[in-house]
Design brief:
15% strand; six-stranded parallel β-sheet; alpha/beta; globular; 537 residues
Length: 537
């Protein structure tokens, strides 16, 4: 594979040549009968118009539109409120009076995007605070722009820009579409490709209602954000009984969820965090990342009384651990009810994971409690969830269906990359696309994608396909992957497409799974001769 330093985009000159070569093709697709001339000879022929009392997110979307159009054409596009719009062509961003007349009511909350060319210009609007931004970037995509990775974008250049016959009416298939893309560059990229979370707490997307964790609270596995180990000195009874004695919690040991006063103290800390960051709409009430819970008699009695003391699906070591789902979700209910009295209208994300993966046997979820089902174990990412030949995925599929029967608010947590496979090829783009379609068909509406965003050389096509497919699961994953490869590699796109294809074919021929155990699964998967041929392709 060629060396790809820094952001690993091709050299600027080569990419620019490729972009310019593509522009006439894109322009002809929209301009067979030229109707609206937006720029010519580096001069803007249209004005960006926003409502008189535009929200900050609409103003940001309008500035983005003007800035990218300026980069494309060399012209300066002005942004003005509707009352000061000059005569001539206008590009209305957000719910202006004209947008309502031309495109109809856009006051909903389902992030519907409406882009419509009309004799006086073009309306670029959408339902909800983030939707105008989504509309702007879908419009720019129709003009040939692409957002390929954080800090890597394709912006064609031409002094003349014309559009016609433009009528787009679309809404996202998933109401919550996330990557774990904290940081300014990750948040910006996620918004440009249609994600609505999880953003950095102070970002414009977060302030506009995009999902984010509140300041002062970790994301998933966040008990210690509210009851840290240092509380052991004063309240040892809140901490687990392990081996016959109380020990401080850490990243692998859970709290004693039956301890008197713990739910009150926990809820008070959640209230404080939400008060400090009122734009946050969701907070996590999830245990640490480990199987070892409190073994005190009170906790074990909860397991016996509510779920019969049964075991559950395999643990990470292949054993069948005690099921603690009723214990975990029962405690989440206690906290959620207390918090909602002080800060109503918030959601409480609780992982459904390893020994609390299945729905509780007895506990019914309180309002606002959102189960977040992790496709971790059972899971095999080399096959689609709906593939009947995969026993782990068939088991997971059954669990998805059971959760949907108890909670329509279910969120599914997918490992778009898995830390134990970093720096190893993991060609699973097609299976992810198939899983997104399948989950949507089952009724899942919330999708969280875990990604460290550190493996773009290998996983770039997967990241791009997984992002775009959550807006439109019917999109062809092969076409999306080709779009990414062409945008990133320009003149070398054919060779790089051959390389990715060769790696995928070589890996798939082994028939080996992708679960959580690369030490036993990697051996024999990456055959030296097959990988050599892939490097030479």
């Amino acid at each position: 594979m060629p060396s790809l330093p820094g952001g690993f985009a091709p050299k600027a000159a080569a990419l620019l040549c490729w972009a310019i070569a593509c522009l006439p093709r894109c322009a002809r697709a929209e301009s067979a009968d030229v109707g609206l001339l937006l720029a010519e000879e580096g001069r803007a022929l249209a004005t960006v118009v926003v409502p008189e009392q535009a929200s900050p997110s609409v103003e940001e979307a309008a500035r983005d539109l003007a800035r990218y159009l300026g980069r494309m054409t060399g012209a300066e596009f002005k942004v003005v409120p509707e009352g000061r719009a000059p005569a001539g062509l206008r590009m209305d961003v957000g719910p202006t009076d004209l947008a309502r007349k031309v495109a109809g009511d856009l006051s909903g909350k389902d992030e519907r995007v409406r882009i419509l060319a009309h004799p006086g210009g073009v309306v670029i609007a959408g339902d909800g605070e983030l939707a105008p931004s989504f509309a702007v970037f879908r419009f720019l995509e129709r003009l040939g722009c692409r957002w390929l990775a954080p800090g890597e974008e394709l912006v064609p250049s031409s002094p003349r820009l014309a559009i016609s016959r433009l009528d787009i009416d679309t809404r996202p298939a998933f109401e919550l579409r996330t990557f774990f893309a904290q940081g300014a560059s990750g948040s910006a990229w996620a918004r440009r490709v249609g994600m609505n979370g999880f953003f950095s707490p102070g970002s414009g997307a977060a302030r506009a209602g995009g999902a984010h964790w509140p300041r002062g609270a970790q994301g998933f596995h966040g008990y210690h954000s509210f009851i840290p180990g240092r509380t052991f000195a004063e309240r040892p009874e809140w901490h687990p009984l392990i081996g016959g004695k109380r020990v401080p919690t850490d990243e692998f040991l859970q709290l004693c969820l039956t301890a008197p006063g713990l739910a009150d103290a926990f809820a008070a800390e959640v209230v404080r965090v939400l008060m400090d960051d009122p734009s946050a709409t969701m907070v996590t009430l999830s245990p640490y990342d480990g199987l070892r819970g409190c073994a005190c008699e009170a906790c074990r009695e909860v397991d016996r009384r509510l779920s019969g003391g049964r075991t559950t699906y395999q643990g990470l070591d292949g054993t069948a651990p005690r099921f603690v789902g009723d214990r975990v979700f029962g405690f989440a209910n206690e906290v959620a009810v207390r918090v909602s009295r002080e800060v109503p209208g918030k959601s409480f994300a609780v992982l459904a994971y390893v020994n609390y993966l299945e729905p509780p046997d007895t506990v019914k979820l309180a309002p606002g409690v959102v189960p977040v089902l992790c496709h971790y174990a059972p899971a095999d990412y080399s096959r689609a969830i709906a593939d009947p030949a995969s026993e782990p995925n068939s088991a997971f599929d059954r669990i998805v269906r059971r959760w949907l029967g108890t909670s329509p608010d279910l969120m599914v947590y997918m490992y778009v990359d898995k830390h134990m496979w970093w720096r190893l090829p993991r060609p699973v783009t097609r299976t992810f696309a198939a899983d997104i379609r399948h989950l949507r068909q089952l009724g899942v509406r919330r999708y969280f994608g875990q990604s460290a965003f550190e493996d773009w050389a290998w996983q770039g096509p997967l990241y791009y396909v997984a992002a775009k497919s959550r807006w439109d699961p019917a999109a062809d994953p092969d076409l999306l992957a080709r779009e990414w490869i062409e945008g990133m590699f320009g003149p070398a796109a054919r060779e790089m497409a051959d390389h990715y294809r060769a790696v995928e074919e070589a890996v798939r021929r082994t028939g080996r799974p992708y679960t959580d155990d690369p030490p036993t699964q990697a051996a024999g998967r990456y055959h030296p001769e097959a990988m050599r041929q892939a490097e030479e392709s």
